[in-house]
Amino acid sequence: MDMRYVSVQGGPLPVWVRDGEPAALVFLHYWGGSRHTFAPVIDRLASGGTVVSYDHRGWGAARDLPGPYGIEQLADDVLDVVRGLGLSNYVLVGHSMGGKVAQLAASRRPDGLAGLVLVAPAPPRPAVDAQAADALAHAYDSRATVGDALQHVLTHGPLPADLREQVLTDSLAASDDARLAWPRHGITADITTAAAGAIDVPVHVLAGQHDRVDPPASLEANLLPFIPDAHMTVIDDTGHLSPLEAPGALATQIDRFTNARS
């Protein structure tokens, strides 16, 4: 994939692009992830569409971009990327926090948006309270805490050594303000009224069978009733990090969804 720069609030955002057919997929990573999170999925896609991925502001290659780092600003960045690359027919693929950002971006009904694929998305109606969110703020304090989250919360089974190291590196690659923006504000923001109901494109939700963060039952209660054209598929034998645990299954579902929109 080729690196390009897109102008966003505060400066240039590095964006990685693989050119293809006019239809495009724009990948938005989870809290603690990076553009690398979706690499195993992108490698398995059968369709020849354009692929776009990047690190959210304050993370990884975009660590030096200034705040604010809230989900509203991240949604602004999504639409700036779309405009900056001249995308006229695209699907947003958002994972966890990236899924909530995708919902906000879609609620603005931007030109060219054909649909959403929400992978283990944070739901529009919060499923955690302030106390749980505050505890979450310490999940990425150190390699030890990230490793504990990987073993006990994020995955259903152990990741290969290279992917585990990638998660450890990515999770510690944020500025403090960017890292804390999600647990302190984003995860508890209720966007059911302000955003979810305004989404007017098809939405395919991919839930992990053994997801402890955003389990299928939570998505059935806190997401599906609030987005008008949302449907859910449960991916077997995976936890919250399905892009790393079940990339082939995700690629198949994404290909089917995008082919139906072409």
From TrEMBL:
Highest taxon listed in the record's lineage: Bacteria
GO MF annotations, alphabetized: hydrolase activity
Pfam families found in the cross-reference section: Abhydrolase_6
UniProt keyword terms in alphabetical order: Hydrolase
Domain AB hydrolase-1 positions: 25-251
Annotated InterPro entries: AB_hydrolase_1, AB_hydrolase_fold, AB_hydrolase_sf
PANTHER family the record matches: AB HYDROLASE SUPERFAMILY PROTEIN YCLE, MONOACYLGLYCEROL LIPASE
Name this protein carries in UniProt: Alpha/beta hydrolase
